[in-house]
Give the backbone structure.
Amino acid sequence: MADAWLARYRAQLEASDLGQWADALCDAALPSIRLVIDGQIDATAAGVSRLGGSPDLPPDAPWPAEDDGTPLSFIAQLDMRQMAAHDVQGILPRAGLLSFFYAAASQRAWGFNPADHGAWAVIHIADVAAVRPREAPGEVRAEGRFSAARLSPEAELTFLPRESFAIEGGARRHAA
């Protein structure tokens, strides 16, 4: 699928008189999955991709928490079977749920410092049959709770930021 996207992209570049840069631009293009909000969701539906709401967790799974025990906010979960159709590189799990949690109320971590490791969690739950919607613990503040919305995946090409070392290397490679 990525080859078909790149072929269409290359054809668009050629048609726009940008063919001389087609190799460099195609080298910089990467397949990705865009998550699109697709409306409201039944909050009791287990195992579906969603932004906000309540996560689906196994009954015995602990709620993710910061190092000090403060519960993290639930951000999103992805149904990996749904994502697999758009994962042209085959790098994501093919089944299960991928759930994301973050210290949203405090927003103390941005991810640049290794000391931020306790401010977020990503959990892969392989056995979706065992999950049930779970309400956030009472300690999760109101500003760390989000309304549920359904997420749908769409395949697309993305590009490295201009300050990327890969772009700089590619630009030098194609300038010669």
User: Anything to note?
Assistant: Confidence is low (pLDDT under 50) at residues 171-176. The longest helix spans residues 2-15. Residues 33 and 87 are 7 Å apart (CA to CA). The beta strands are 29-37, 50-51, 56-57, 73-79, 97-102, 120-125, 132-133, 149-159.
